[in-house]
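Standup notes
- DV: blocked on the single-chain target, sequence here:
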Amino acid sequence: MVRFNFLKSLAGLSVAGLLMAGSAAADETLDASAFQGIIKDQMSAFAAGNAQAAFSFATNSLQQKFQSPEIFMQMVKQGYQPVYRPQSVTFGQSKMTKLGPTQEVYVVGPKGKNWLALYSFEQQEDGSWRISGCYLTKSDGFAA
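- DV (later): unblocked, structure below
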């Protein structure tokens, strides 16, 4: 398993805690389409080279940490090629964890390798959702 410390370094979240966290109450409903839309929009911004737009999907705390859209874009470009330039994208499950909602995203990276990107989200003060992190691991591909 290849690990990039995006979640740990960006959001200060423990990957193990995120993956092992139990589901929230059954009546908790996730708007998977909203999370998927945010991810699609950020990936479109990456593809267009629009650092400002890509940066806008990150939480306020991540924006403060990276200080500028250009620094953020450079970090993604260097460490997250599978989500920066995916060949294909397939959405898996959305789950509520103790640390908040997550969305599985299966991507085929630019070199044809399969990856699982586990995105985490945090609700902002204005009620909107933004990406709080992304944990990237090699994958065997999408498993329904």
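- Follow-up: The chain has seven helices and four strands.
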